[in-house]
Structures are given as structure tokens and as C-alpha cells.
Design brief:
Layout lengths: L2 E5 L4 H16 L3 E6 L4 H6 L3 E4 L4 H12 L4 H6 L7 H22 L6 E4 L4 H11 L3 E3 L22 H31 L6 H10 L4 E3 L16 E3 L15 H8 L5 E3 L9 H15 L3 E4 L16 E4 L4 H4 L5 E4 L3 H10 L3 E3 L6 H11 L16 H14 L1 H14 L4 H13 L1
Helix pairs in contact: 1-16, 5-7, 6-7, 10-14, 12-15
Length: 432
């Protein structure tokens, strides 16, 4: 029996897709462990996977990070190109997160590990481990990362710089990431008894060798760039695992049965500490749009505690998007990669409210696909006209049949893809 270790770090959206991948591998007869933060141990074990701990849990670090970097967590900062000012503190925070992560990844791999599957955040560290152990590894990023002329780096805000500029910015983004991982890589290679080598050197070796990379998003949203090398493949989304007999909580079912399909509002792991303001904004916008609403608490702590289900508003905690979103008339969210894809999969229109990192990129993709309204940058929710603007977008999303038709068409296309199955095929090729 083969033993596969998946490593993933970051927020819920950075972890949950790998539970679906792991469950698919386990169903095929492999022993699978998922190394991630303590906050996600129940998620991992529920999927039937072995949990192994990684340090630097963003849920316990986010208060410190917010002081220096705002609402984005360190993994997002690690993927973001530098700003003209204030970059040094940001880079130090991200590098500290990565350095702490490095020791945990080395500890997570046991002697019987046959294959490493690596998320974007863990791959620059995991490749050193694979080299030291002499075992194959496979990168499984959730967002496009390789330079291309087709679009600018996904963390640059989504604005094209022209084909030459896009490629140049993509190469610069990789060099920034190399720099962030430099200290952690140096310590890790010394610990593993490997000769000194910079992250850039290791990355270039992998590129020269044509090492395969499978991207866990759909070509429905991002067609494979025409100038990517062979071996960089877009295989479709990896969906978070949930039990086949999972059901929505009774309170949610009762709310859904009591009236027309509501609008979902949630910001996932974004907007920590802004719960009171955003809760009031969400409730006011939903009332102004004259629709019912389900508000997901998330890391921001959104709540409708001053209202009740009788007022047409309900607060929920974590529930599978796969079960909830198809029951909505529209979804309002921050456009993380997984949440954006979940909205498309459900066949419902989206109101994108991107906060940071890759979220503006996905928001723009949803709008271009015709399944979303024009994005509302999160910072615009602080203006005097925020309630009116959000209410207007909700009305646009729920009242336009063409947008729902586009969403239904896109959902049918996504349903034909089997991203986890493609990972299984690639893993078994490497193990063979």
C-alpha cells in the first residue's frame, strides 16, 4: 500500500479542496495524510484522512498579522508582489510565517512516505523534502502562478500590462516568492543534509526538468494560457469533501422553506474585526433590495443577532457551499478561488466583493463570464453609498434572467470535469 502526504497551509479556502483530493486518493486504495494547521484537524479527519500538524495557524496569528498588514493573512502576503512603501514589514511577516512552516513540513513526512502532494504555499519548501528523501512530488496550486502573456499575475489586481508586461510581472512575482522563502529554505536544506541551493535555483531545476504541475481550477474561468510549457495542466476544481448523507442544518432548511430563495452574504476568512459594521451593512442592503438573506459568520464574525428569521435574515456558521449555494438566488462573497468556483458550480449569479490577493482576479473572471455583476471592491463598502451600491448589485444579480442563464450554462460545463480524478491519475503515474 502506498502512502501519500498532502501538505497545505493558510485559511479554510487554502485547505478544504485538498480534503476532496485526499478522499479520492483514499477511495482508490492509498493511505493518505493531510498536514495542515490544528484549526482544520476536524475537517481532515471527517474526510477519513490522517491529520498531521503544521505550525503557523493563521487563525491564531491573524490578530498579530492584522496589526502589520491589514485583513489579509500571511499566505496571501506571501503571494502578493511588493508595494512601493511599507513592504519590509509585510515581507518580514510573511517570511516569519514561512520559516515557522518549514520545520513543520519536515516533521510531517515520515519514512514510509511515497509521494508528496504540495499546495502553492508549501511547494517551495516541500521540494527540498522530496529531494532529501528521494521521493516524487507534485505541485497542486489553486491559482495560476506560472508567468504568461495572457494575463498579469493574479495578485496584481487583474489589470493587464500587455503580453510582454504580463510575463515580466509574472517573473518578478516568482522572484519575490523566492526571496520570501530564502531563509526557510536555507534552514531546511541544512537540517535535511542537502547542499546549499537557493529557492530560485531549485525552482529553475524543476522548470528545466519539466516537472508536472496540476492547477485546481476550471478552464471555464481561466483557459490554459497559450504560452505555458508542457506539463503545466489545468485539470478542474477540487471540491471540499463532505459526507454523501450531509444535510443542511434544520434551522436552515426551515428558513429556506419559509419563503423565496434568499441571497447569501459571506466574506470567508476576510475582514477580521469588522463584523459589527459589515453585519449592519449586509442587513440594510438586503432589506433595501427587498430580498431575504443568509449571512455566514466567517472570520469577520458577521451576525444578524439583532433580527430573527422572521425578519427575513438568518446567520449561519460553516456549512458546505455545495449544499447551500444551489438553494440561493444569488451569492455575495469575497471571491476566493474556491468560493468563486462554488458559486459557478451552483449555477447562481454572484456579486463579487474582492478584498485582496487573488480575489480581484477571480471577481473579474466571473464578471467576464457573465455570471456576476461588476465587482465592488471591499474598500468601497466603507463609503457613504455602500448600502445603496450593494443593494443595487443584489437587485441586478437576482433580477436579470440572462445572468442566471449564463450561470446555469457554466455550471453544466463544470459538471463535466473531474479534477480530483486527474490528480489520482497523475499520482499513480508518479508512484509507478
Amino acid at each position: 500500500m502506498t502512502h501519500i502526504l498532502i501538505t497545505a497551509a493558510g485559511s479554510h479556502g487554502d485547505i478544504a479542496p485538498y480534503t476532496g483530493v485526499g478522499a479520492r486518493l483514499r477511495a482508490a486504495g492509498h493511505e493518505v495524510a493531510l498536514a495542515t494547521h490544528d484549526s482544520y484537524a476536524p475537517l481532515v479527519r471527517a474526510a477519513g484522512l490522517e491529520f498531521r500538524r503544521l505550525p503557523a495557524d493563521p487563525r491564531t496569528r491573524r490578530a498579530d498579522l492584522a496589526d502589520a498588514t491589514g485583513p489579509a493573512d500571511a499566505t496571501e502576503q506571501a503571494r502578493r508582489p511588493p508595494a512601493p512603501d511599507g513592504t519590509r514589514a509585510l515581507m518580514r511577516q510573511a517570511a516569519a510565517f514561512i520559516k515557522e512552516l518549514g520545520g513543520g513540513i519536515a516533521d510531517a513526512a515520515r519514512d514510509d512516505t511515497d509521494l508528496l502532494l504540495l499546495s502553492a504555499t508549501t511547494a517551495p519548501l516541500g521540494h527540498h523534502l522530496a529531494e532529501a528523501r528521494g521521493i516524487p512530488s507534485l505541485e497542486l496550486p489553486l491559482v495560476p502562478a506560472a508567468p504568461t502573456g495572457d494575463f498579469a499575475p493574479v495578485v496584481s489586481g487583474g489589470r493587464s500590462l500587455g503580453r510582454w508586461g504580463n510575463r515580466a510581472a509574472g517573473r518578478l512575482s516568482l522572484r519575490v516568492i523566492d526571496r520570501l522563502y530564502a531563509d526557510a529554505a536555507r534552514e531546511m536544506r541544512a537540517r535535511l543534509g542537502l547542499p546549499a541551493a537557493t529557492p530560485r535555483t531549485v525552482r529553475r531545476r524543476a522548470e528545466a526538468a519539466g516537472r508536472p504541475v496540476l492547477y485546481g481550477f476550471s478552464e471555464v474561468l481561466v483557459p490554459r494560457p497559450s504560452d505555458w510549457r508542457t506539463g503545466l495542466d489545468v485539470v478542474g476544481n477540487w471540491w471540499p469533501w463532505h459526507a454523501p448523507d450531509d444535510r443542511l442544518p434544520p434551522v436552515v432548511e426551515d428558513f429556506l422553506a419559509a419563503g423565496p430563495p434568499p441571497v447569501f452574504i459571506g466574506f470567508g476568512s476576510m475582514a477580521g474585526g469588522e463584523g459589527e459594521r459589515l453585519s449592519a451593512l449586509a442587513a440594510a442592503a438586503l432589506r433595501r433590495a427587498k430580498v431575504r438573506g443568509i449571512v455566514q459568520s466567517g472570520w469577520a464574525g458577521l451576525t444578524t443577532r439583532h433580527t430573527s428569521a422572521d425578519d427575513g435574515l438568518l446567520t449561519i456558521g460553516e456549512v458546505p457551499h455545495a449544499l447551500l449555494f444551489p438553494r440561493m438566488s444569488a451569492v455575495v462573497h469575497h471571491c476566493g478561488a474556491g468560493t468563486a468556483a462554488a458559486g459557478v458550480r451552483a449555477g447562481v449569479p454572484t456579486v463579487p466583493v474582492p478584498v485582496t490577493a487573488d480575489q480581484p482576479f477571480w471577481a473579474a473572471r466571473l464578471a467576464a463570464l457573465g455570471v456576476a455583476t461588476a465587482p465592488i471592491p471591499f474598500k468601497d463598502l466603507s463609503t457613504d453609498h455602500a448600502v445603496a451600491r450593494l443593494a443595487h448589485a443584489i437587485t441586478q444579480a437576482t433580477a436579470a434572467p440572462a445572468r442566471r442563464d449564463h450561470a446555469t450554462t457554466a455550471a453544466h460545463r463544470l459538471a463535466t470535469e473531474d479534477g480530483a480524478g486527474e490528480v489520482l491519475k497523475a499520482a499513480e503515474r508518479l508512484l509507478a
